[in-house]
Amino acid sequence: MIGSVRFPLRRWEVLVPALALVALVLSWGRDLPGLVVAVIALLLAGSVLAAVHHAEVVAHRVGEPFGSLVLAVAVTVIEVALIVSLMVSGGGESSTLARDTVFAAVMITCNGIVGLSLLVAALRHRVAVFNAEGAGGALATVATLATLCLVLPRFTTSAGGPVFSPAQLAFAAVASLVLYGLYVLTQTVRHRDYFLPVDKAGGVLDVAEAEEHAAAPSDRETLASLALLLLALVTVVGLAKVESPVIERGVDAAGFPHAVVGVVIALLVLLPETLAAVRAARRDRVQTSLNLALGSAMASIGLTIPTIAVASIWLSGPLELGLGALHMVLLALTIGVSTLTVVPGRATLLQAGVHLAIFASFLFLAVSP
After folding, report:
1. What digits encode the pLDDT tens for the residues 319-328?
2. CA 324, CA 322: separation in Å to the nearest integer?
3. Cα(206)–Cα(289) distance, integer angstroms
4. What is the rounded CA–CA span in Å between residue 231 and residue 242?
5. Per the UniProt record, which residue ranges are transmembrane (predicted)?
6. What is the model's pLDDT at position 5?
7. For residue 50, which of 90, 19, 86, 89 has the smallest C-alpha distance?
8. Which of 95, 205, 293, 302 is most buried, by the most CB atoms less than 10 A from its CB?
9. What is the pLDDT of residue 329?
């Protein structure tokens, strides 16, 4: 599963999200002094750790792959709400905000989280083993969604610029929802065993073995952790937004492009999934790590595009979804390398290094395009 689970809940796992929520309410929309910014940063880090713990509790109760699905969808839903709220507030960058955020999420999950997970698993267990059927199906869905929603707008001709016409945007939104729904059905009902951890021989681990026979939490503990998980994720995303003016000032002072702000915020928002995936990889549950990474990339596209398609009815100005040439090359490289990684169902330090090199290239080119 995502990690070890201990009961009952420790006091900090309840207290930190509550304090973070109070800090979020008091600091939202205000210019903050340096000391307060530092305190908020500490609460943000604590909320990330609390979110990972509560995700473990929920995942332990519902089992894989439902556990990783809960965390991926919860983070994405809150992230989408943040994107829409920022787009409604307007500004010169709002037309590309959804595209930049979704692309950053894809690069972070498919290269950063996957690379770190494979690295940790390969260092501890020599070879990272996972289910090629499940990982391959998830990757195919991510590749299709990314191409449909982020690449095709650059080549369509019904509307000027890298944008969809209203009919094309509606089609992309419906197709995204259908593909994501089909993936969830496959992952949780039709072929659940494709998304369960496997042993060195490639055999699927049963739930009891995957959980190392730990006692499952009660329904009351699970519901409490689910509520605290949502609270922690709200505070993570909200405090990341509160910190964004400080990040913007730092980016401007360093002379970096404004798009770097979105990358930094995406990194903060995806911290809970990153930590959960790495902890799963340490326990040789690489399939769980891939479920988190690829599921998050898929949810980021499959839920964001339909939401902004509806929101675009009220939003003014263009909605630019088409990637530039540089980002399309990085996306194509990511899809090609990821395919070669998942097909064998086994990965070594080499594959981990390749994914991390692509992720480092994305970060470097974001700073120096």
Report:
1. 788 899 999 9
2. 7
3. 17
4. 16
5. 12-29, 35-54, 66-90, 102-123, 135-155, 167-185, 223-242, 254-278, 290-315, 321-342, 349-367
6. 41
7. 19
8. 293
9. 96
